[in-house]
Amino acid sequence: MQLFLDGIFLGSIYALFAIGFTLVFGILDRLNLAHASVFTAGALVGIEVVSRFGISIWLAIPLVLVLGALLGVLIERIAFRPLAGRHDAHFAGLISSIAFGAIILSLLQALFGADTRRFPADAFPQARFEILGATVSLLQVIILVISVSLMVVLTWLVAKSKLGRGMRTIAENPHAAAVLGLNVGRISSTTFAISSALGAVAGVLFTLNVNAAQLGIGHAVELKALAVIVVGGMGSLPGALVGGLILGLSEVLAVNYIGSSWRDMVAFGLLFLILILRPQGLFGARKTREV
Amino acid sequence: MRKKLFSAAVCGSALLLAITGCSTTSGNGTKDDGATGSGTGADCVIKSAVPISAAFSLTGAAAQYGASQKNALELAVEDLNKVGGVTYELTVEDDATDPKQAIQVFDTLIASGAAVIIGPTLSNTAKQTNPIAQDAKVPVLGVSNTAAGITEIGDYIFRDSLTEDAVIPQTIKAAVETLDVKKVVVMYSNDDAFTESGYQAFAAALKDEGVDIADTLTFSKADTDFRALLNKAKKSDADAIVVSGLIDAAVPLVTQAREIGIDTPIIGGNGFNSPALIKGAGKAAEGVIVGAAWNSASDNEQNVKFIEDYTAKFDAAPDQFSAQAYAGLQIIDHAVRAECSAEREAIKAGLGDITDVPTVLGDVSLNENRDAVHDALVQVVKDGKFAILE
């Protein structure tokens, strides 16, 4: 039971990161590789506001959410929009987002230094309880609740709201969407804002969970999140959640039953197996775009 | 960018070749470039400043160590230049915790005429860069490399950092004697030369002391979530957990271990020996045992003054990395003065002859393998401080 819960908690963090990733990918067909830097920025800025200004973590999370949204808009405006007209916009955007991510990291290093930083020890209630013989911290439960609820809200948003309809129209055909009178630029910006807001909050929760944040944390999660969205089905929100949980569980089980040195091999091997059996990913549909 | 750097390095070395070529034809015999002085030891006077270069990790994963080292060297140069007779000119370059960049930095430093190179910060990097210095016959003094196989690279490679091989047996012995440890779980990151060799030393020391290893678990140096490993370790019911990992892993590992209810002592390798552990892990750090080449509680006179000066200058407490870097320059100063020359060969000869030189680490000797020899200290975290384990 402990193993199962450990896997779920680890996986929910991968999923939270991957959901933001896949949102932009699914709607705008752009891979935003600055996402890892936004994650790091969320973590470090969160630590800064809590430790320097002494504000509560509950206030810091919304603040970081707003910061993430702003960063998202900047990424869209600076790294993606100027390239939209190019025939190689996919790859150009990929590269320019890596560059933008590097700029964010350099700024973070200039502001906060390269040291590993962490939240003050009393930033979060240390409550712990037993569920069916397994030890679980309040924090882990909250991370799970936040990522699942964000996923539910997002799925609803994309499926039912006016904004979501606009998003899906753009996903289908951006030119047609513009002809229909949709403000493609604004919807793109909003998508980036939501995606990055999630990424930044994921950074804060991740840091709370492991008690360490430094400039490299984003990249450590990025590769896993990429694997998660490929397995979940590119652009599929439920796919990102389920993919994240599968990766988290397989890592934990690999450590316990096969050997810790084999963890990444087993986890990624399993992901490849899923892809062989179901090339479009768990929730991906062939040839059609999902959001 | 790389290409540019590379061509700059090529041009630089070509230029150096041209210069040395000229000087051998014209200045055959004693060089009058001010690098060799008169007198020996305390009386030594060298006209021009001795160029000391250092390659440290000022950015990247090991940046916390590099910053302490750079600060300490700056302080050491300041102090030594006050003595008179010999002055030092310090150049510190950033290897970005990346062996590829470190190689370029070494090329540049060698081409720019460094008399001796201090560094690099990580053993991993040293294994890549030191052969270059060895080939160019430039002496290197490692001040933080503790892995095996560093000084074996060649006769120009020295270090003042006590190896894990020297510290770890003393640590395990002290832990077994004072805490009656019989069964342990060993954890280490297996993708780093430093932590890997630390693990080898732990395994050998545990065997020598007759301690039973219940399980060996590996992780990656980039990992931050250790709950799965720790839950496995918890099940084995060991008396202690032995960890060979860098500080980036140490803090989350220790915190998470206490969080899931592991209350046994945690015995760490050299990477755990930093004030950052106590600052970062807070109460969770209590009971962590670390062997060290240096301890802030040491009452060595030089050390007390060093801690005062460092704290006043940088508004932060020094750690072992800064103490070893400071001692490194003291040792180099001794070597330079012994031969009273800033020539690379003379410094190499001087470093080969270091015996009981008083430094902030205590009396340091370099043995026939060019490795440091001095007493280690076994510490335990108690009431938020490193105290000597008794």
From TrEMBL, chain A:
<feature type="transmembrane region" description="Helical">
    <location>
        <begin position="91"/>
        <end position="112"/>
    </location>
</feature>
<dbReference type="InterPro" id="IPR052157">
    <property type="entry name" value="BCAA_transport_permease"/>
</dbReference>
<dbReference type="GO" id="GO:1903806">
    <property type="term" value="P:L-isoleucine import across plasma membrane"/>
</dbReference>
<feature type="transmembrane region" description="Helical">
    <location>
        <begin position="33"/>
        <end position="50"/>
    </location>
</feature>
<keyword id="KW-0812">Transmembrane</keyword>
<keyword id="KW-1133">Transmembrane helix</keyword>
<dbReference type="GO" id="GO:0015192">
    <property type="term" value="F:L-phenylalanine transmembrane transporter activity"/>
</dbReference>
<keyword id="KW-0472">Membrane</keyword>
<feature type="transmembrane region" description="Helical">
    <location>
        <begin position="7"/>
        <end position="27"/>
    </location>
</feature>
<feature type="transmembrane region" description="Helical">
    <location>
        <begin position="132"/>
        <end position="159"/>
    </location>
</feature>
<feature type="transmembrane region" description="Helical">
    <location>
        <begin position="57"/>
        <end position="79"/>
    </location>
</feature>
<dbReference type="GO" id="GO:0005886">
    <property type="term" value="C:plasma membrane"/>
</dbReference>
<keyword id="KW-0997">Cell inner membrane</keyword>
<feature type="transmembrane region" description="Helical">
    <location>
        <begin position="192"/>
        <end position="213"/>
    </location>
</feature>
<keyword id="KW-1003">Cell membrane</keyword>
<protein>
    <submittedName>
        <fullName>Amino acid/amide ABC transporter membrane protein 1, HAAT family</fullName>
    </submittedName>
</protein>
<dbReference type="Pfam" id="PF02653">
    <property type="entry name" value="BPD_transp_2"/>
</dbReference>
<dbReference type="GO" id="GO:0015188">
    <property type="term" value="F:L-isoleucine transmembrane transporter activity"/>
</dbReference>
<dbReference type="InterPro" id="IPR001851">
    <property type="entry name" value="ABC_transp_permease"/>
</dbReference>
<keyword id="KW-0813">Transport</keyword>
<dbReference type="GO" id="GO:0005304">
    <property type="term" value="F:L-valine transmembrane transporter activity"/>
</dbReference>
<feature type="transmembrane region" description="Helical">
    <location>
        <begin position="266"/>
        <end position="285"/>
    </location>
</feature>
TrEMBL record, chain B:
<keyword id="KW-0732">Signal</keyword>
<keyword id="KW-0029">Amino-acid transport</keyword>
<dbReference type="GO" id="GO:0006865">
    <property type="term" value="P:amino acid transport"/>
</dbReference>
<comment type="similarity">
    <text>Belongs to the leucine-binding protein family.</text>
</comment>
<protein>
    <submittedName>
        <fullName>Amino acid/amide ABC transporter substrate-binding protein, HAAT family</fullName>
    </submittedName>
</protein>
<feature type="signal peptide">
    <location>
        <begin position="1"/>
        <end position="27"/>
    </location>
</feature>
<dbReference type="InterPro" id="IPR000709">
    <property type="entry name" value="Leu_Ile_Val-bd"/>
</dbReference>
<feature type="domain" description="Leucine-binding protein">
    <location>
        <begin position="52"/>
        <end position="384"/>
    </location>
</feature>
<dbReference type="InterPro" id="IPR028082">
    <property type="entry name" value="Peripla_BP_I"/>
</dbReference>
<dbReference type="InterPro" id="IPR028081">
    <property type="entry name" value="Leu-bd"/>
</dbReference>
<dbReference type="Pfam" id="PF13458">
    <property type="entry name" value="Peripla_BP_6"/>
</dbReference>
<keyword id="KW-0813">Transport</keyword>
<dbReference type="InterPro" id="IPR051010">
    <property type="entry name" value="BCAA_transport"/>
</dbReference>
